[in-house]
Amino acid sequence: MTLIATDLPAMPKPASAPAPPVPIMDLKAQYRTIQDEVLDALREVAESTAYVLGPKVADFEQAFADYVGSRFCVGVNSGTSALHLALICAGVRPGDEVITVPMTFVATTWAVSYIGARPVFVDVDPITYTMDLRQVERKITRRTKAILPVHLYGQPADMEGLLDLGRRRGIPVIEDAAQAHGAAYDGRGAGTMGLCGCFSFYPGKNLGAYGEAGAITTDDEAVAARLRKLRDHAQGRRYHHDELGYNYRMDGFQGAVLGVKLKHLDRWTESRRRLADRYLRKLATLPLKLPVEAPGRRHVWHLFVALHPHRDRIRSELEAAGIQTGLHYPVPVHLQEAYADLEHRPGDFPIAERVASDCFSLPLFPEMTDEQQDRVVAALRDALTRDREDRP
Protein backbone atom coordinates (compact mmCIF):
# COMPACT_ATOMS: atom_id res chain seq x y z
CA MET A 1 0.00 0.00 0.00
CA THR A 2 1.34 3.39 -0.96
CA LEU A 3 0.81 6.24 1.45
CA ILE A 4 0.17 9.66 0.03
CA ALA A 5 0.87 12.88 1.84
CA THR A 6 -2.70 13.33 3.04
CA ASP A 7 -2.60 9.91 4.75
CA LEU A 8 0.42 10.76 6.88
CA PRO A 9 -0.12 11.92 10.46
CA ALA A 10 0.34 15.68 10.93
CA MET A 11 3.74 16.56 12.32
CA PRO A 12 3.70 18.92 15.27
CA LYS A 13 4.96 22.37 14.45
CA PRO A 14 8.30 23.10 16.06
CA ALA A 15 8.04 25.50 18.97
CA SER A 16 9.43 28.89 18.14
CA ALA A 17 12.72 29.56 19.87
CA PRO A 18 12.53 32.08 22.70
CA ALA A 19 13.96 35.47 21.90
CA PRO A 20 17.53 35.88 23.11
CA PRO A 21 17.99 37.91 26.29
CA VAL A 22 18.41 41.66 25.98
CA PRO A 23 21.81 42.37 27.59
CA ILE A 24 22.49 45.47 29.60
CA MET A 25 25.43 46.04 27.23
CA ASP A 26 26.80 44.12 24.25
CA LEU A 27 30.56 44.50 23.79
CA LYS A 28 30.63 41.66 21.28
CA ALA A 29 28.23 43.54 18.99
CA GLN A 30 30.43 46.61 19.22
CA TYR A 31 33.58 44.61 18.51
CA ARG A 32 32.07 43.15 15.33
CA THR A 33 31.61 46.66 13.91
CA ILE A 34 35.29 47.62 14.35
CA GLN A 35 37.04 44.25 14.35
CA ASP A 36 39.34 44.83 11.38
CA GLU A 37 40.44 48.27 12.61
CA VAL A 38 41.17 46.96 16.09
CA LEU A 39 43.13 43.93 14.93
CA ASP A 40 45.23 46.06 12.58
CA ALA A 41 46.04 48.47 15.43
CA LEU A 42 46.93 45.63 17.82
CA ARG A 43 49.14 44.04 15.18
CA GLU A 44 51.06 47.31 14.84
CA VAL A 45 51.79 47.33 18.56
CA ALA A 46 52.83 43.69 18.54
CA GLU A 47 55.19 44.23 15.62
CA SER A 48 56.64 47.43 17.09
CA THR A 49 57.08 45.82 20.56
CA ALA A 50 56.10 49.19 22.10
CA TYR A 51 54.11 47.47 24.81
CA VAL A 52 54.26 50.11 27.58
CA LEU A 53 53.39 53.72 26.72
CA GLY A 54 54.88 54.25 23.25
CA PRO A 55 53.53 55.95 20.11
CA LYS A 56 50.00 54.49 20.23
CA VAL A 57 49.49 55.84 23.74
CA ALA A 58 50.97 59.22 22.80
CA ASP A 59 48.72 59.44 19.72
CA PHE A 60 45.66 58.62 21.79
CA GLU A 61 46.58 61.15 24.49
CA GLN A 62 46.72 63.93 21.90
CA ALA A 63 43.53 62.80 20.19
CA PHE A 64 41.60 62.55 23.45
CA ALA A 65 42.82 65.94 24.66
CA ASP A 66 41.61 67.45 21.38
CA TYR A 67 38.32 65.59 21.64
CA VAL A 68 37.36 66.84 25.11
CA GLY A 69 38.91 70.28 24.65
CA SER A 70 41.88 70.07 27.01
CA ARG A 71 45.50 71.10 26.46
CA PHE A 72 46.97 67.90 27.86
CA CYS A 73 46.01 64.29 28.45
CA VAL A 74 48.10 61.78 30.41
CA GLY A 75 47.23 58.11 29.96
CA VAL A 76 47.36 55.78 32.97
CA ASN A 77 46.39 52.22 33.80
CA SER A 78 42.94 52.86 35.35
CA GLY A 79 40.46 55.52 36.33
CA THR A 80 41.31 54.88 39.97
CA SER A 81 44.95 55.70 39.29
CA ALA A 82 43.86 58.83 37.44
CA LEU A 83 41.99 60.06 40.51
CA HIS A 84 44.89 59.22 42.80
CA LEU A 85 47.47 61.16 40.78
CA ALA A 86 45.14 64.11 40.19
CA LEU A 87 44.56 64.51 43.93
CA ILE A 88 48.31 64.37 44.58
CA CYS A 89 48.83 67.13 42.02
CA ALA A 90 46.05 69.15 43.68
CA GLY A 91 48.19 69.16 46.83
CA VAL A 92 46.19 66.69 48.90
CA ARG A 93 48.32 65.17 51.66
CA PRO A 94 47.80 62.78 54.58
CA GLY A 95 45.37 64.23 57.12
CA ASP A 96 43.68 66.54 54.58
CA GLU A 97 40.01 66.44 53.61
CA VAL A 98 38.39 66.05 50.19
CA ILE A 99 34.72 66.87 49.72
CA THR A 100 32.88 64.36 47.52
CA VAL A 101 29.63 62.39 47.28
CA PRO A 102 28.55 58.99 48.64
CA MET A 103 26.56 58.11 45.48
CA THR A 104 29.40 56.86 43.31
CA PHE A 105 31.55 53.84 42.66
CA VAL A 106 33.93 53.40 45.58
CA ALA A 107 37.02 54.15 43.45
CA THR A 108 36.24 57.85 43.91
CA THR A 109 36.99 57.59 47.61
CA TRP A 110 39.71 54.94 47.32
CA ALA A 111 41.83 57.62 45.66
CA VAL A 112 41.33 59.93 48.64
CA SER A 113 42.16 57.15 51.08
CA TYR A 114 45.29 56.05 49.19
CA ILE A 115 46.81 59.42 50.06
CA GLY A 116 45.83 59.12 53.71
CA ALA A 117 43.27 61.90 53.40
CA ARG A 118 39.65 61.78 54.60
CA PRO A 119 36.59 61.82 52.32
CA VAL A 120 33.98 64.29 53.54
CA PHE A 121 30.57 63.60 52.03
CA VAL A 122 27.75 65.85 50.90
CA ASP A 123 24.44 64.51 49.65
CA VAL A 124 23.44 64.50 45.99
CA ASP A 125 20.87 66.60 44.20
CA PRO A 126 17.47 64.83 44.04
CA ILE A 127 17.10 65.45 40.30
CA THR A 128 20.54 64.81 38.80
CA TYR A 129 22.06 62.67 41.59
CA THR A 130 25.25 64.73 41.30
CA MET A 131 26.88 66.83 44.04
CA ASP A 132 24.42 69.17 45.77
CA LEU A 133 26.17 72.52 45.55
CA ARG A 134 24.09 73.98 48.39
CA GLN A 135 25.68 71.62 50.90
CA VAL A 136 29.33 72.00 49.91
CA GLU A 137 30.38 75.31 51.46
CA ARG A 138 29.33 74.42 54.98
CA LYS A 139 31.51 71.29 54.84
CA ILE A 140 34.67 73.27 54.05
CA THR A 141 37.25 73.42 56.85
CA ARG A 142 40.87 74.52 57.04
CA ARG A 143 41.79 70.95 56.10
CA THR A 144 39.78 70.91 52.86
CA LYS A 145 42.24 70.62 49.99
CA ALA A 146 40.01 69.53 47.07
CA ILE A 147 36.40 69.28 45.89
CA LEU A 148 35.71 66.09 43.94
CA PRO A 149 32.34 66.07 42.11
CA VAL A 150 31.25 62.99 40.18
CA HIS A 151 29.62 63.28 36.74
CA LEU A 152 27.32 60.38 37.53
CA TYR A 153 25.82 58.13 34.85
CA GLY A 154 27.11 60.46 32.10
CA GLN A 155 25.75 63.83 33.28
CA PRO A 156 28.01 66.63 34.55
CA ALA A 157 27.62 68.02 38.04
CA ASP A 158 26.76 71.68 38.66
CA MET A 159 30.20 72.87 37.64
CA GLU A 160 29.59 76.62 37.42
CA GLY A 161 28.71 76.84 41.09
CA LEU A 162 31.43 74.44 42.19
CA LEU A 163 34.13 76.24 40.22
CA ASP A 164 33.02 79.60 41.60
CA LEU A 165 33.10 78.22 45.13
CA GLY A 166 36.53 76.71 44.53
CA ARG A 167 37.90 80.02 43.25
CA ARG A 168 36.47 81.99 46.19
CA ARG A 169 37.85 79.57 48.77
CA GLY A 170 41.12 78.73 46.99
CA ILE A 171 40.26 75.02 46.68
CA PRO A 172 40.96 73.08 43.46
CA VAL A 173 38.17 71.12 41.82
CA ILE A 174 38.98 67.66 40.45
CA GLU A 175 36.35 66.15 38.13
CA ASP A 176 35.53 62.47 38.36
CA ALA A 177 34.53 62.10 34.70
CA ALA A 178 34.86 58.31 34.64
CA GLN A 179 31.35 57.97 33.16
CA ALA A 180 31.23 61.18 31.14
CA HIS A 181 33.29 60.86 27.94
CA GLY A 182 31.97 63.59 25.64
CA ALA A 183 29.53 65.06 28.16
CA ALA A 184 29.38 68.85 28.46
CA TYR A 185 28.30 71.63 30.80
CA ASP A 186 27.29 74.88 29.07
CA GLY A 187 29.37 73.81 26.08
CA ARG A 188 32.49 72.93 28.07
CA GLY A 189 33.66 69.36 27.95
CA ALA A 190 33.49 67.21 31.06
CA GLY A 191 37.02 66.88 32.42
CA THR A 192 38.16 70.30 31.16
CA MET A 193 36.74 72.65 33.79
CA GLY A 194 38.59 71.80 37.00
CA LEU A 195 42.29 71.52 37.66
CA CYS A 196 42.11 67.94 36.35
CA GLY A 197 39.54 65.63 34.81
CA CYS A 198 39.77 61.91 35.53
CA PHE A 199 38.51 59.32 33.06
CA SER A 200 38.12 55.57 33.21
CA PHE A 201 38.32 53.42 30.10
CA TYR A 202 37.08 50.25 31.78
CA PRO A 203 35.62 48.05 28.99
CA GLY A 204 31.98 48.87 29.77
CA LYS A 205 32.45 52.64 29.62
CA ASN A 206 31.22 54.72 26.65
CA LEU A 207 34.85 54.73 25.52
CA GLY A 208 36.20 51.44 26.80
CA ALA A 209 39.57 49.74 26.48
CA TYR A 210 40.11 46.00 26.09
CA GLY A 211 41.27 45.81 29.67
CA GLU A 212 42.03 48.47 32.29
CA ALA A 213 43.00 52.02 31.37
CA GLY A 214 42.39 55.62 32.38
CA ALA A 215 43.52 59.20 31.75
CA ILE A 216 43.87 62.62 33.35
CA THR A 217 43.17 65.80 31.40
CA THR A 218 44.43 69.24 32.43
CA ASP A 219 45.21 72.67 31.00
CA ASP A 220 48.09 73.17 33.44
CA GLU A 221 51.42 72.37 31.79
CA ALA A 222 53.27 71.89 35.09
CA VAL A 223 50.59 69.53 36.36
CA ALA A 224 50.73 67.52 33.12
CA ALA A 225 54.51 67.21 33.41
CA ARG A 226 54.27 66.02 37.00
CA LEU A 227 51.54 63.53 36.10
CA ARG A 228 53.74 62.01 33.41
CA LYS A 229 56.52 61.56 35.93
CA LEU A 230 54.34 60.19 38.72
CA ARG A 231 52.78 57.51 36.50
CA ASP A 232 56.27 56.27 35.55
CA HIS A 233 57.94 55.79 38.95
CA ALA A 234 58.50 59.57 39.23
CA GLN A 235 61.37 59.41 36.76
CA GLY A 236 62.45 62.85 35.62
CA ARG A 237 65.04 60.95 33.61
CA ARG A 238 65.65 57.23 33.54
CA TYR A 239 66.63 55.78 36.92
CA HIS A 240 66.45 59.19 38.63
CA HIS A 241 63.40 59.44 40.90
CA ASP A 242 62.38 62.87 42.15
CA GLU A 243 59.64 61.80 44.60
CA LEU A 244 57.49 58.81 45.48
CA GLY A 245 56.23 57.47 42.17
CA TYR A 246 53.86 54.82 40.88
CA ASN A 247 53.69 52.23 38.13
CA TYR A 248 50.50 53.59 36.57
CA ARG A 249 51.52 53.49 32.90
CA MET A 250 49.04 52.77 30.11
CA ASP A 251 50.06 49.86 27.90
CA GLY A 252 50.44 50.15 24.15
CA PHE A 253 47.63 47.74 23.31
CA GLN A 254 45.11 49.84 25.27
CA GLY A 255 46.33 53.02 23.60
CA ALA A 256 45.85 51.35 20.22
CA VAL A 257 42.31 50.14 20.99
CA LEU A 258 41.28 53.49 22.44
CA GLY A 259 42.68 55.32 19.42
CA VAL A 260 40.48 53.24 17.14
CA LYS A 261 37.37 53.51 19.28
CA LEU A 262 37.66 57.27 19.83
CA LYS A 263 36.94 57.79 16.11
CA HIS A 264 33.53 56.16 16.62
CA LEU A 265 32.61 57.76 19.93
CA ASP A 266 30.46 60.59 18.53
CA ARG A 267 28.36 58.12 16.56
CA TRP A 268 27.97 55.84 19.57
CA THR A 269 27.03 58.79 21.78
CA GLU A 270 24.34 59.95 19.39
CA SER A 271 22.92 56.43 19.39
CA ARG A 272 22.87 56.44 23.20
CA ARG A 273 21.15 59.82 23.24
CA ARG A 274 18.52 58.69 20.72
CA LEU A 275 17.80 55.53 22.70
CA ALA A 276 17.61 57.46 25.99
CA ASP A 277 15.14 59.91 24.46
CA ARG A 278 13.11 56.97 23.18
CA TYR A 279 13.04 55.43 26.68
CA LEU A 280 11.94 58.72 28.18
CA ARG A 281 9.03 59.00 25.74
CA LYS A 282 7.90 55.38 25.98
CA LEU A 283 8.18 55.15 29.78
CA ALA A 284 6.73 58.58 30.56
CA THR A 285 3.34 57.26 31.72
CA LEU A 286 4.70 54.47 33.91
CA PRO A 287 5.08 54.78 37.71
CA LEU A 288 8.86 55.22 37.63
CA LYS A 289 11.21 58.02 38.56
CA LEU A 290 13.01 58.55 35.28
CA PRO A 291 16.39 60.26 34.78
CA VAL A 292 16.55 63.88 33.64
CA GLU A 293 18.95 65.76 31.40
CA ALA A 294 19.39 69.05 33.26
CA PRO A 295 19.28 72.34 31.32
CA GLY A 296 22.64 73.37 29.89
CA ARG A 297 24.13 69.88 30.25
CA ARG A 298 24.89 67.31 27.59
CA HIS A 299 24.16 63.87 29.02
CA VAL A 300 26.00 61.01 27.31
CA TRP A 301 23.89 58.29 28.95
CA HIS A 302 26.56 55.93 30.16
CA LEU A 303 23.69 54.42 32.13
CA PHE A 304 19.91 54.82 32.00
CA VAL A 305 18.92 54.59 35.66
CA ALA A 306 15.31 54.56 36.85
CA LEU A 307 14.02 54.46 40.44
CA HIS A 308 11.20 52.38 41.90
CA PRO A 309 10.52 51.50 45.56
CA HIS A 310 9.97 47.82 44.62
CA ARG A 311 13.18 47.72 42.61
CA ASP A 312 14.16 44.15 43.48
CA ARG A 313 10.77 42.73 42.55
CA ILE A 314 10.76 44.63 39.24
CA ARG A 315 14.25 43.41 38.40
CA SER A 316 13.24 39.80 39.09
CA GLU A 317 10.28 40.15 36.73
CA LEU A 318 12.49 41.63 34.03
CA GLU A 319 15.08 38.90 34.46
CA ALA A 320 12.36 36.26 34.02
CA ALA A 321 11.39 38.00 30.77
CA GLY A 322 14.96 37.87 29.49
CA ILE A 323 15.84 41.48 30.25
CA GLN A 324 19.14 42.11 32.01
CA THR A 325 19.43 45.02 34.43
CA GLY A 326 22.15 46.45 36.64
CA LEU A 327 22.61 48.16 40.02
CA HIS A 328 24.63 51.38 40.05
CA TYR A 329 25.03 51.47 43.05
CA PRO A 330 23.15 49.51 45.74
CA VAL A 331 25.22 50.59 48.77
CA PRO A 332 26.31 54.23 49.09
CA VAL A 333 29.94 54.71 50.03
CA HIS A 334 29.26 56.15 53.48
CA LEU A 335 27.58 52.86 54.47
CA GLN A 336 30.31 50.59 53.12
CA GLU A 337 32.10 48.50 55.73
CA ALA A 338 35.43 49.79 54.43
CA TYR A 339 34.45 53.27 55.66
CA ALA A 340 32.97 52.28 59.01
CA ASP A 341 35.65 54.38 60.69
CA LEU A 342 33.90 57.51 59.41
CA GLU A 343 30.98 56.55 61.71
CA HIS A 344 28.18 57.41 59.32
CA ARG A 345 24.72 56.00 59.90
CA PRO A 346 21.66 55.37 57.72
CA GLY A 347 19.86 58.66 57.27
CA ASP A 348 22.98 60.80 57.09
CA PHE A 349 22.59 61.31 53.32
CA PRO A 350 18.96 60.50 52.55
CA ILE A 351 18.93 61.30 48.82
CA ALA A 352 21.93 59.10 48.09
CA GLU A 353 20.41 56.35 50.23
CA ARG A 354 17.10 56.53 48.39
CA VAL A 355 18.82 56.33 45.01
CA ALA A 356 20.84 53.34 46.21
CA SER A 357 17.77 51.49 47.47
CA ASP A 358 15.52 52.21 44.46
CA CYS A 359 17.83 52.43 41.43
CA PHE A 360 18.15 49.97 38.58
CA SER A 361 19.82 50.35 35.18
CA LEU A 362 18.02 49.38 31.98
CA PRO A 363 19.80 48.02 28.89
CA LEU A 364 21.32 50.81 26.81
CA PHE A 365 24.19 50.44 24.36
CA PRO A 366 24.89 51.97 20.94
CA GLU A 367 24.12 48.79 18.98
CA MET A 368 20.76 48.25 20.72
CA THR A 369 17.91 47.87 18.23
CA ASP A 370 14.50 49.47 18.52
CA GLU A 371 13.05 45.95 18.70
CA GLN A 372 15.23 45.13 21.71
CA GLN A 373 14.26 48.37 23.39
CA ASP A 374 10.57 47.76 22.73
CA ARG A 375 10.94 44.36 24.45
CA VAL A 376 12.41 46.11 27.49
CA VAL A 377 9.57 48.64 27.57
CA ALA A 378 6.89 45.94 27.21
CA ALA A 379 8.44 43.76 29.92
CA LEU A 380 8.79 46.72 32.26
CA ARG A 381 5.17 47.75 31.68
CA ASP A 382 4.03 44.21 32.47
CA ALA A 383 6.19 44.05 35.60
CA LEU A 384 4.86 47.37 36.89
CA THR A 385 1.27 46.30 36.20
CA ARG A 386 1.77 43.09 38.18
CA ASP A 387 3.44 45.06 40.95
CA ARG A 388 0.37 47.30 41.26
CA GLU A 389 -1.98 44.33 41.23
CA ASP A 390 -0.01 42.49 43.92
CA ARG A 391 -0.01 45.35 46.38
CA PRO A 392 -2.17 44.77 49.46
Could you characterize the architecture of this molecule?
This protein has 392 residues and is an alpha/beta fold. It has 2 domains: 27-122 and 129-262, Aspartate Aminotransferase, domain 2, CATH 3.40.640.10; 265-390, Aspartate Aminotransferase, domain 1, CATH 3.90.1150. The protein has helices at residues 27-48, 55-68, 79-89, 107-115, 159-169, 221-231, 252-262, 265-282, 311-320, 350-358, 370-390, and strands spanning 72-76, 97-100, 118-121, 144-147, 174-176, 184-185, 188-189, 196-200, 214-218, 235-237, 240-241, 297-298, 304-307, 359-362. α1 crosses α7 and α9 crosses α11.
Order of helices and strands: HHEHEHEEHEEEEEHEEHHEEHHEH
Fourth CATH level, the homologous superfamily of the largest domain: Type I PLP-dependent aspartate aminotransferase-like (Major domain)
- Count of domains: 2
- In terms of DSSP E residues, the strand content is 5-15%
- What characteristic shape results from the CA principal axes? globular
* Shape-level CATH architecture of the largest domain: 3-Layer(aba) Sandwich
Uncertain runs are 1-6
Radius of gyration: 24 Å
- The main sheet orders its strands as 1-9-8-5
CATH class of the largest domain: Alpha Beta
CATH topology of the largest domain: Aspartate Aminotransferase, domain 2
Distance between the termini: 67 Å
